[in-house]
Amino acid sequence: MSFTYAEVGATRERGFRCPPGFHHLHVRTRIGEGEEVFRRASEAVLTWELHRAMGVGIEATAERAAPDVDVTVTLAGLIKAPCRVVWTVEEPRRAGWAYGTLAGHPECGEESFVVDRTGDGTVWLTISAFSKGAKWYARAGGPATRGLQHAYARRCGVVLRRLCGWYREN
Fold this sequence. Notes:
Elements: E1 23-33, H1 35-46, H2 49-53, E2 57-60, E3 70-75, E4 79-91, E5 94-101, E6 107-117, E7 122-133, H3 136-163
Antiparallel strand pairs: 1-7, 2-3, 3-4, 4-5, 5-6, 6-7
């Protein structure tokens, strides 16, 4: 199965340009501070733990994100969203991955989940995406669909902060 969009891997570049006709998403959430928080957050993102803690179903062909791993996200037990990991990064201060949509996904595009630790030790989760509706119901949802995507991205930050045991308010 091939990707449903041409710009495969575009989210790898920080500050990427959103392809014409797609909607851009960029949500950055402070997770906590320190090396231990970074390691815990990175592991939760790379092993699908964050997604499972969000309450979505995850079926993946590997236990850890890696290029060419197929992932099917199931929402509410009804909507199946097939994807494939297009890139990963595991560096001392940056870890994460992105997946792109495959045929049958309600959306068309790519989404990345990246944890990074800045020079002052602050740990951030950044979710970036570009997408447009592929199925009729995603297109019909228009701004409401995009609102749900933003809410999901913000909730990912809240859930990851909890998984890392970091409760201090920003």
